[in-house]
Amino acid sequence: MKIDRRGLLLAGLLAPAAAFAEQFAGKYQPQAQPIGEGIWMVRGADEAIGFANGGAIANSAIIATDAGAVLFDPGVSREHGLALGALAQRLTGKPVGRVYISHLHPDHAMGAAAFDPAIIHALPATRAELERDGEGFSDAMYRLLADWMKGTAVVLPQGDLAGGSTQFGGRPFRLLALKGHSGGDLAMIDERTATLVTGDLVFHDRAPSTPHASLPDWRASLGVLAGLPHKVLVPGHGPLDRDGSAIAQTRDWLDWVEQSLHKAVVDGLDMSEAGDLPIPARFAALKAARYELQRSVSHFYPRLEAELLPKL
Ligand SMILES: [Zn+2]
Question: Can you list the domains of the chain with their CATH numbers?
Answer without folding.
Answer: 28-244 (3.60.15.10)
